[in-house]
Design brief:
With 276 residues, this protein is α+β, with helices and mostly antiparallel strands. The protein contains two helices and twelve strands. It has two domains: 82 residues; 161 residues, Thrombin, subunit H (Beta Barrel), CATH 2.40.10. Strands 1-2-5-4-3-12 form a six-stranded antiparallel β-barrel. It has a six-stranded antiparallel barrel with strand order 6-7-8-11-10-9. Strand 4 and strand 5 form a beta hairpin. The radius of gyration is 43 Å and the shape is rod-shaped. The chain starts with a helix and ends in an 8-residue tail after the last strand.
């Protein structure tokens, strides 16, 4: 009935003139309800504004939460990237060791069998099956795949004696691969299986697990016996006291000296043929 009544009124409204009774009634109705519409709009406006404010605030909070999560993800990605960069640098150092320390550019290698193992706890030496016949000389560095073994201490026609890193009389300049702290690796001569990194001042940084390698320093009139970046061992512990200006650092050797079957003697390509 309402729909039918609406259709009738619309039909009459379209057909009558603008001055017709229905148009005049619509005008009166609009004039009467206009003040109520204005009041209603004014009353509703603060509520509409409040709703809009809360809606915008909630939207801003959601966006802020989303941005915070994205920022945290970016921070984590950056942290992972920095860790990866540090790890890459460390691996690059190790890769340089693979290329330089085992097969140094300025050295040729002589692969030799060990014919006599270490002779005792106080004289850690082995005898190898090569000597003057292979151009081996005193103080030539001796290595294996795991790192530094020692140096040639005696040379015969066909055999040589190697003084091991574990010998009490052995010493080599070394540095911390991770921090660059430098010192001297030697045996404490106390019957221990570990080495010590001596001479590192307390203002330098060292950490447990750091790799210790040969420093391979070079001066105009003198150079180290050992090429740089040959692995010696890893730091197992360190300590310091108020009265001692240097660290007490223990290093576990990279090489198992009790199971040596073959070694590599590094011969400098720059030395004179037939020299001492």
């Amino acid at each position: 009935m309402l729909v039918l009544l609406s259709l009738i009124l619309l039909t009459i409204s379209f057909r009558e003139s603008s001055n017709g009774p229905l148009h005049r009634f619509q005008g009166y109705g609009s004039a009467v309800t206009k003040p109520f519409q204005v009041v209603a709009d004014r009353i509703a406006q603060p509520f509409q504004d409040a709703y809009g404010w809360f809606h915008d605030m909630r939207k801003a909070k959601d966006e802020n939460k989303k941005l915070s999560e994205e920022l945290e993800n970016l921070r984590q990605q950056r942290a992972r990237q920095k860790n990866a960069e540090v790890e890459a640098a460390h691996l690059e150092e190790l890769l340089n060791y693979e290329r330089v320390a085992r097969f140094p550019e300025d050295y040729s290698k002589v692969n030799v069998e060990v014919i006599t193992p270490a002779t005792g706890a106080f004289e850690q030496t082995v005898v190898i099956a090569a000597g003057q016949n292979r151009e081996i000389r005193v103080d030539d560095p001796v290595v294996v795949g795991d790192g530094l073994v020692g140096r040639i201490s005696q040379v015969g026609p066909t055999t040589s004696k190697v003084t091991l890193v574990s010998d009490p009389n052995f010493a080599a300049s070394a540095r911390d691969l991770n921090t660059g702290a430098e010192g001297i690796v030697r045996h404490p001569a106390t019957g221990s299986d570990v080495l010590i990194l001596d001479g590192v001042k307390k203002d330098k940084e060292v950490n447990k697990g750091d790799s210790i390698i040969t420093s391979g320093w070079v001066r105009p009139d003198l150079s180290s016996l050992y090429p740089q970046k040959i692995s010696i061992g890893r730091i197992t512990s360190f300590s310091r006291t108020d009265v001692n200006p240097i660290y007490q650092i223990q290093v576990e050797p990279s090489v198992d000296f009790t199971s040596l079957e073959a070694v590599i003697v590094l011969i400098s390509k720059n030395r004179q043929v037939g020299g001492p």
